[in-house]
# Entry
Amino acid sequence: MEKGKQLEKRGILTEIFVTIGRIAVSIFVPVVAFFILWAGFIFLRDSNANQGIIALVAIIWGVGGVALLFWVADWVVNRTPVHVAKKLQPFVFVGPALVILTWYLFLPTMRSLYLSFFDAQSKNFIGLTNYIFAFTDSKMLESFTNNLMWIILGTGGSVGFGLIIALLSDRSKFEKVFKSIIFMPMAISFVGAGVIWRFIYAYKPAGEDQIGILNAIVTFFGGNPQAWFTIRPWNNVFLIIILIWLQTGYAMVIISAALKGVPSTIIDAGRIDGASEMRVIRSIIIPYIFSTLVTVSTTIVIISLKIFDIVFTMTNGNYGTEVIASMQYKQMFRFYHYGRGSAIAIVLVIAVIPVMWYNLRQFSKREGF
Amino acid sequence: MTKIHKSKWAYVVNLILLVLVIIWSIPIIGLLISSLRPQEDVLSTGWWTLFKNKGVITLDNYKQVLGGSEYTFVDSTGATVRSSGDNLSRAFMNSFTVTIPSVIIPILIASAAAFGFAWMVFPGRKFFFTTVVALLVVPLQIALIPILRDYQSLGLTGSYLGIWMAHTGFGLPLGIYLLYNYISTIPRDIFESAFLDGARPMVVFSRLVLPLSVPAIASLAIFQFLWVWNDLLVALVFLGGTSDVAVLTQRLANMVGSRGQDWHLLTSGAFVAMIVPLVVFFALQRYFVQGLMAGSVKG
# Structure
């Protein structure tokens, strides 16, 4: 009896001792991890070592650091009582992303929302004036129609060609070669793409040697050389062609990966039942990869909505080719009108809500939500 | 999928593809040929005339772009010209140092978040996810100034850590969106059996989800790589213009700026910058070809 009580007492004492020990270790491990990372940071910030060594240390430190943070967070959470751990566990996974996104994108967006109600110097509250500008200014209205054109033609073109090429090359012996060439433009920076397309669209007066291939073809057939970027509204189409050229590779790669995931048993079943190839594509393959098509279209719609570099480097928005993002850039960094710049950015964010709403509905059809 | 052999359709398919591929490659062929032509030819005649009349081909543009320091060459009139080239090799190294962690870090964080959003239950899940996806459209430009101010007070401007974090922040929405799309379609059975066996979520994530998501991660890696490698704006703002940290695109943009009409150097420079992304694409290409979920679950 006596002995039992003593044992129990010691049990409680050990329990307390173990708990304190656990808490101490739980604090100690993250502190050590933090210290290691901090030492690396100081080394990278202040070191004058050889460029190659710094690069190597930087890469190991950066990548290893993130992995270490995940591991430590998980370790700590698992030291807590089970019911607490269960609640904390999801945040080990989504927490880092949420923190970074809040800092880099969410807070700046909120700040823009706030500034969009103020004047150029962000001093006086002016209500909706900036938004009235955004929806009535003639240049802005021009941008809206142009962006709509970018979204429809750019997305349609990229996804359309991407789908056709993915489907066709899936049935070709030379799949890899074809796909690699279509993908090549993706590897080019916008600076590079600008250089390349000048050799396509370049204009020299009639009678001179054309260095743009499009005008060379036109003059070869006896036509007059055209200054392509000044012909409204077709100049927008000429710019959109550059986007299609750049983005078809992206659409093709993603769609192609999805095509590989269509079980061959279903396709063979369709073929055995006597369905034509077109029928197989329309009734089996397309429905099967539909969610991928939505994903690809969404990303390209967003790229078209934010399109900036192509317009900015090729025409600088002249000759009726202005788009929303370049208007935003000009208001913000040329005219230093923070109010208008912010309001236009917010309009961009709002413009994409229908697309996102559609996406979320697609998600909720799955088990996830 | 079955390849079609020995039928007239195979020819039609290959013919259509061939036409498309030729159209797609014309601009790149133009770039390649232009990069091999002397300056005066590039500006006076079209690149395709190289085939018609015997044009001159030279590697001087590449020498000048890659060689760095000073070198001499004999120009078309026979005079010896001294010219200073652009040393891109340092910029190459900088581009790698910036790009590699800027690809791996966001993918690690995004795949963890995508797993959390897809397969874990917690309050505010739908709200947080919607917000993350909505952030896809936020134009970078509005974030630059606030973040730059934060960096100045933290001493992060011009540091690699700063630009990695920036690329991570700006790349996360697309990363989470694409990986969520993929991870949420992994069959539920796989997780259930793992959790029944008592596996912790971190183990499930690192042993099951990451290996299963290799095709999606490979495609995301390529796009993030291309985006970071070809990025100019973020590098300009957060890395600053000093030549010891400047990346390839900054040097290229400087060439546009300082050389205006030197298209012969721009073309070779643009071609040099293209090579690395292409190598990465070919290296990761086999992952795209893998069947997405092939063999992971039976029945």
Notes: Residues 89-119 of chain B form the longest helix (31 residues). Strands of chain B lie at 70-74, 80-84. Chain B touches chain A through 125 residues (CB under 8 Å). DSSP finds 14 helices and two strands in chain B.
